[in-house]
Amino acid sequence: MYRKGEVSYQPLPLPDRVQLDEGASQAAAESFLSYMKKRHSVRDYSTRPVPEAVIAACIAAAGTAPSGANHQPWHFVAIADPAMKARIREGAEEEERAFYQGGASDEWLAALEPIGTGVAKPHLTDAPWLIVVFAQRYGVTQDGSRYKNYYVPESVGIATGLLIAAIHHAGLVCLEHTPNPMKFLGPLCGRPEHEKPVMILPVGYPAESATVPAVAKRKKPLGEIMSVFRP
Asked: Which of 217, 206, 188 minimizes the C-alpha distance to 77?
């Protein structure tokens, strides 16, 4: 992270080497692919509790993400308090109501129809944990002076991806809810004005009756998402 006065480059020998030989590397990649295909965005949650230590480890994994100039422009707020979760659900449903009653275009609503979303957000109170992801527009040093953060959306996006993968690796499920604008989240979570909420992740175990939209299993084939230029 940025610290005032630290402006020199000091190389450190690569501290960890986890490289594999070619065969083992492909096997590991394919095993990870197979495991990640089992990740699902879930809206139906069990009330079964999840230890705080598990959530902390997932967030710590997210904190290992690369970032612009290593400024780490993110903050994660983990919420288990029922009253806070209820307030977040109330605010989210208020904004969703406005969205579905005229704030969204017909094209957007048609795109969402196969997903089965709506105004009601019971997952925001059913899930044992909510993790609110904040992006820091700029940083503040210990003496209160500002400094610029770089590639904030990209950095926070990478960290959030690692968080989602860590949650899956812990045997849990989550749902990616993107607040817009949910300005009340900053004061509610005790965060400063220069931090913007970008995502809420309900986290927990899936309910016994949990379902996912059939369309969510449709993924673009590799040929549509990958181009290769060989020598």
From this structure: 188
Query: Tens of pLDDT along 152-207?
Result: 999 999 999 999 999 999 999 999 999 788 889 999 999 999 999 999 999 999 99
For residue 194, count CB atoms less than 10 angstroms from its CB and return exposed for 0-12, middle for 13-18, buried for 19 or more.
middle
CA angle, 30 then 176 then 160, to 5°:
65
C-alpha to C-alpha distance for 134 and 136, rounded to whole angstroms: 6
Q: Round to whole Å and give the CA distance between 179 and 177.
A: 6
pLDDT in tens, 16-55: 999 999 999 999 999 999 999 999 999 999 999 999 999 9
Sign of CA dihedral 96, 178, 37, 209: negative
Residues facing residue 130 across a β-bridge? 79, 202
Nearest Cα to Cα of residue 160 among 198, 124, 192, 194: 198
User: Structural domains in the chain?
Assistant: 42-204 (3.40.109.10)
Per-residue CA distances from 125 to 46, 165, 168, 181 (Å):
11, 22, 20, 20
CB 168 within 8 A of CB 9: no
Nearest CA-CA partner of 56 in 206, 203, 157: 203
Tokens representing 184 are: 């009340």
Cα(31)–Cα(168) distance, rounded to whole angstroms? 14
- Here the tokens at position 178 are 């993107």
